[in-house]
Design goal:
The structure is a homodimer.
Chain A: H1 2-9, H2 18-28, E1 32-34, E2 41-43, H3 45-64, E3 68-69, E4 75-77, H4 78-81, H5 85-91, E5 96-101, E6 104-112, H6 117-127, E7 136-145, E8 159-169, H7 172-193, E9 199-202, E10 214-221, E11 227-237, H8 239-244, E12 247-249, E13 255-257, E14 259-266, H9 268-277, E15 294-298, H10 306-316, E16 322-324, H11 331-341, E17 345-349, H12 351-355, E18 358-363, E19 369-373, H13 377-402, E20 404-406, H14 410-419, E21 423-428, H15 432-442, E22 445-450, E23 469-474
Parallel strand pairs in A: 3-7, 15-16, 15-17, 20-21
Antiparallel strand pairs in A: 1-2, 4-6, 5-6, 7-8, 8-14, 9-10, 9-22, 10-11, 11-14, 12-13, 17-18, 18-19, 21-23, 22-23
Helix pairs in contact in A: 1-11, 3-7
Chain lengths: 477, 477
């Protein structure tokens, strides 16, 4: 009991210390544990079940667009990593190097993949001969390693799980279309399933992926007003194809370079779920992603018939992901535990409820308690889950709208960054030097040039030079 | 066209050169490709789809027994690997060592996990305090690395995909029960889904897992008469618990060590599917595991109405995993291609069939051609898939029975090993020295002491000492 008590008591409030609140939730909701391997984490059953649900939903959406899954090696020979200049510069400083296999030193070092563009290029070079072999629309679910100095569970760790899609196309147009298509898959998944509204847009030259022509991103706003890059999709043009010699014979018998894309979504998105929806009682999971949607808690479960009724109720609710907590903890602890774990609905049922042919249903997101007749509980639970999903999205959207500000000049920008929180929309000149100065002065970074532009003026908010693009700025994870 | 032609022509016959036949099938059925990373392979869409089906089937069976999935780091610090003496001796010679993170040398080397017993122990040490925390029944799906000198696709590669289950229990009995339970999950999966009959039994002291008290195995017989270890389940007793200090407080408030198990099944099983069921036309997939069960091939597809009818048929067969091959290859090539890929049923439909309201259904396993009325094709396809599944199992079982021999003395043993192929059942003394001598003289190894024992005498087939156990011997992959 001592252990359970701690779980509920020790959580820091969001207002007091958001970073500590995050760490508390991640640990107390049993999502992860630290390990002896510095910067790496154990993803525990509650955390991994969430990732499995994410995988199922995302993988299904991928396959509907024609994606096929493959698996490429965990290692990249040093020579292969070096083939594309910008790419190696971006990744070499943060990879883990394997230098020995068994008892012998290797002739060539291998890095543990930080991302697999180079391996896919090496593969496509042999796979693609004719226009008939195109497009290749492959994806892999795997772990990648990046030797980060400072780590935080889900948000930044030395190893993380993700999917990385890599495609090859005959034309630049088709590659661009696929880049945007996959960004839309991510955006729809986030909004429809995770109830997280996102801004779709393009990264600046400075922030784009190492080796890409253009990087598109979805950006979400966390509860503390900081932004989180939640998924990216890159158009490589034919840069990698030229570096690796990936050519095909076209219909009119010419040798052409392929055009490539890549796109990724990682366990980082679990950090977004926590920081968008969580509250001072812990995690709050949107019903569509919750591994368990409904927890039935028998009250006075030792009384005759209570556990039987709970089991019967579980069967009745089999259209949903439902469990019965019949452990020997007392109901109060069970309630707190399930709140911590973010289960969308709790159904309390005790002897009096049974007598009155009803149950008490409690919403995790609002705490609202609703008496429901057992005759109609099946339909009502379905309606409530839909309502919660919708309400959680609306709440997150409202939070983002209330925390998105327009800065027409640098004074306004400074006022917002110093006294408010959230996104700042402003016109920007597009120059890296100016972007770096803004970051230096305010620690705000360019998040994205949204696909849906607004005209807020014609000069850069910082340097006053002509500006044609509206940029979202923000402090970010 | 040139490329497709090669695919079908170049396959070596099984009788001529089984090893070359295997390599041909693996490549021509588009399961894998070689890579620039020596000893590692690309698992291509057809191969990975097979692994995804295996994962689904196995994972569902796991979860029915209460298994929860987790994810632990890809790295093991050298000090952690060394904690259990037998274990480190078994694995240290074949691991890949990471010595640098980014630009800096590491203070302690990390190996890329060859298996994760040590990480799970390190994790359980913190997770388990009281008997209430037990059992822990966790599993992870991941890749592991073993620095093999000679590699073959699926059978032995430097990196492979697998699941590894790791459990901790309060009592030795419970651990033993779980060890056997998981072996049975593997055996049932192999027999029911993969149509591969297996022998369940115990490994010798020499062949057991490094650090285990007992290793149980399922052994299958390949078409060429060699055995393949197809899944293993280990009982660790409290050996690892003592090395890592994993203790819990029992109900009567005593400190006790936990008892542990681990069990794994890998992409190696794909090698078994190929070598048990394949033939000179390529892969033959059991319907229950085939990613595509039925391929509809339109004949004279340019004629009006043919493609429409094929699409209609696909809808009608939506209870199965069905595709239409409407590519511009000619039907002959399509037939050969689908035979190579092992698709259980082919449905041919052309203008004449449509007129006669029928289709020609062709079984991959027997080549049998069956005319089926379109009115009853849905039911007939279901029946045929069931029949194929059953027939493939029966055929594999018959092959194993015909290639399982009893040796009552050493002359018989030598006669079988030199003139026949397959399993040899014989009484064995149980001593490692004797086992090594048998291997030296015949290259046959101990496969397992089957759970179902037969009494074939009372002395060892090789050394003549008293023997109480019947052992399966065989040459093995």
């Amino acid at each position: 009991m001592a252990k359970e008590k701690k779980m509920v008591e020790q959580i820091t409030s969001m207002e007091e210390d958001f970073a500590q609140w995050y760490t508390d939730v991640v640990l107390k909701a049993d999502l992860i544990d630290y390990t002896s391997v510095k910067g790496c984490m154990v993803i525990k059953p509650a955390g991994y079940a969430l990732w499995e649900r994410i995988q199922q939903e995302v993988d299904r959406r991928f396959k509907e667009t024609g994606v096929e899954n493959v698996y490429l090696p965990v290692f990249i020979p040093e020579g292969l990593l070096q083939k594309e200049k910008d790419h190696v510069e971006g990744f070499a400083p943060e990879v883990a190097w394997v230098t020995h296999g068994g008892l012998n030193p290797l002739q060539e070092r291998l890095c543990v993949r930080p991302t697999s563009e180079t391996l896919f290029c090496d593969f496509y070079k042999n796979e693609v001969e004719s226009y008939r072999d195109l497009p290749k629309v492959y994806n892999q679910w795997c772990s990648v390693v990046r030797w980060e100095k400072e780590t935080r569970p889900f948000l930044r760790s030395r190893e993380f799980l993700w999917q990385e899609g890599h495609t090859a196309h005959a034309t630049a147009e088709e590659a661009e279309e696929r880049t945007v298509q996959m960004l839309n898959v991510y955006a729809n998944f986030c909004e429809e399933v995770l109830a997280i509204p996102v801004i779709k847009g393009q990264k600046s030259e400075k922030e784009k992926f190492a080796g890409a022509e253009a990087t598109y991103t979805i950006e979400a706003l966390m509860h503390d007003g900081k932004a989180l890059q939640s998924g990216t999709s890159h158009n490589f043009g034919d840069g990698f194809a030229k570096a690796f010699g990936i050519q095909y014979t076209s219909k009119d018998n010419k040798l052409e370079y392929v055009h490539q894309t890549s796109w990724g979504l990682s366990t980082r998105i679990i950090g977004a779920i926590i920081m968008v929806h969580g509250d001072d009682s812990g995690l709050v999971l949107p019903p569509k992603i919750a591994p368990c949607q409904v927890m039935i808690v028998p009250v006075m479960q030792k009384k005759e018939g209570v556990l039987e009724k709970a089991a019967e109720l579980k069967d009745k609710l089999s259209a949903y992901r439902v469990k019965v907590d019949d452990s020997d903890k007392n109901p109060g602890w069970k309630f707190a535990e399930q709140e911590m774990r973010g289960i969308p609905l709790r159904v309390e049922i005790g002897p009096r409820d049974i007598e009155a042919n009803k149950a008490l249903v409690v919403r995790r997101d609002t705490g609202e308690k609703i008496e429901v007749s057992l005759d109609e509980i099946d339909t009502r639970i379905g309606e409530l889950l839909d309502t919660i999903q919708k309400d959680m999205y609306e709440k997150a959207l409202k939070h983002r709208e209330e925390n998105t500000h327009v800065a027409k000049n640098w004074d306004e920008f400074l006022d917002i960054i110093n006294n408010k929180q959230g996104f700042i929309k402003a016109m920007w000149c597009g120059e890296t030097e100016c972007e770096e100065a803004i970051k230096e002065e305010t620690s705000a970074t360019t998040r994205c040039m949204p696909f849906v532009q607004e005209n807020l003026g014609d000069v850069c908010v910082h340097c006053g030079k002509p500006a044609h693009k509206m940029m979202y700025f923000g402090r970010a994870y």
